[in-house]
Amino acid sequence: ARPRVGYFLSSKPTQALVAEEIKKIKVGDVKGLPRAVKVNTSVYDAVVTMFLEDVGTLMVVDNEGYLEGVVSRKDLLKAAIGGGDLQKMPVSVVMTRMPNIICTTSDETVLTAARKMIEHEVDALPVVRPVEGQEKKVEVIGRLTKTTITRLFVELGEGGR
Amino acid sequence: ARPRVGYFLSSKPTQALVAEEIKKIKVGDVKGLPRAVKVNTSVYDAVVTMFLEDVGTLMVVDNEGYLEGVVSRKDLLKAAIGGGDLQKMPVSVVMTRMPNIICTTSDETVLTAARKMIEHEVDALPVVRPVEGQEKKVEVIGRLTKTTITRLFVELGEGGR
User: Fold this and answer.
1) Does B16 touch chain A (CB under 8 A)?
2) Cβ of B47 under 8 Å from any chain A Cβ?
3) Which of A57, B86, B120, B130 would give a disulfide with B44, using CB separation of 3.0 to 4.6 Å?
4) Is Ribosomal protein given among the entry's keywords (chains A, B) (predicted)?
């Protein structure tokens, strides 16, 4: 019998098709640039950087540029109402520190990364890659946020991806 | 001629099918509960409420419960590093005020609401409805955030919606 072209496709529930399309998208396809501060930056300067760069999460890197922490608007707000001297307090006091940071990689699916943000209640994930010959150290090569997901949702809804 | 069932569907590009499915979802289907403070609440108490309720945006309502403003983590962080007395400063000083608030409604599509969040660079929208006989006043009946969109994206990717 002649194969019925397209029949198999159309017999699938649309839900499954949507899920398949979403699973094709990799973090590397949509990731943004990471915004980072050095680990000895003050909380005050981190807040200023956050406003200047217009991001909700900053990566905190050591002197060699490797990921050491992540600091969110929420972390900084908590520090800011705590009453300490924000110009003297280093950001390392309030950041989430390696190895407790939830990360993603360029070849992970955006679906998996999005699930991590929901499960761990974070607004952004650093996109990292291992450093050759330096076990336990990672380099930050990007940033994936709930804004990235929202933008992607709009693109999908407009048929543009 | 006998209609070729499913043929039309399968001849559509998958992108268009995904877009169609996304356009079916209304704000009312996914909206969360609004979290609100009164307009005379201090910035300090608003921050505390934000942490207790674990939200990134609070609705600010007048004494009758109608929407008067919206305050984000970003607004509060800006106030917190400004150096004023946060216990004495009312949240109304730092909030975005009506009619400048970007809102959505239950019967709007989530796609349209998501596009508003991207275009206006906000993390959350109040879901509102008009008040009968009170022109220019609105009641807040929900909240749509980038977290809502991320959760929806995960559901779509898992084939669960």
Assistant:
1) yes
2) yes
3) B86
4) no
Q: Complex ipTM above 0.85?
A: yes
According to the model, what pLDDT value does residue A135 have? 83
**Inter-chain residue contact B14 with A6, CB threshold 8 Å:** no
Nearest CA to CA, how far is A135 from chain B (Å)? 32
Is it the case that residue A120 has pLDDT exceeding 50?
yes
Residues of B in contact with A155 (CB under 8 A): none
Q: For residue A75, what are the CA distances in angstroms to A71, A104, A149, B63, B105?
A: 6, 21, 22, 31, 32
Q: Which CATH superfamily is domain B25-157 in?
A: CBS-domain (3.10.580.10)
What length does chain A have? 161
* Predicted pLDDT of residue B79: 94
Residue A6, pLDDT score: 46
pTM of structure: 0.91
Q: Which of B19, B76, B160 is facing A77, going by the closest CB pair?
A: B76
Going by pLDDT thresholds of 50, 70 and 90, the confidence category of residue A2 is: low
Two structure tokens written together for A96: 């989430």
Q: Other CB atoms closer than 10 Å to residue B1's CB: what's the count?
A: 3
Strands (E), chain A: 36-38, 57-61, 67-72, 96-97, 124-130, 138-145
Whether residue A8 has pLDDT greater than 50: no
To the nearest whole Å, the CA of B104 is away from the closest chain A CA by 16
Query: Å from A139 to nearest chain B CA?
Result: 26
The pLDDT assigned to B21 comes to 93
Q: Write down the residue that tokens 């974070």 correspond to.
A: A122
pLDDT < 70 stretches in chain B: 1-12
Would you call A113 exposed, middle or buried from its count of C-beta atoms within 10 A (0-12, 13-18, 19+)?
buried
Residue among A6, A16, A123 whose CB faces B11 most closely: A6
CA of A140, closest CA in chain B: separation in Å? 22
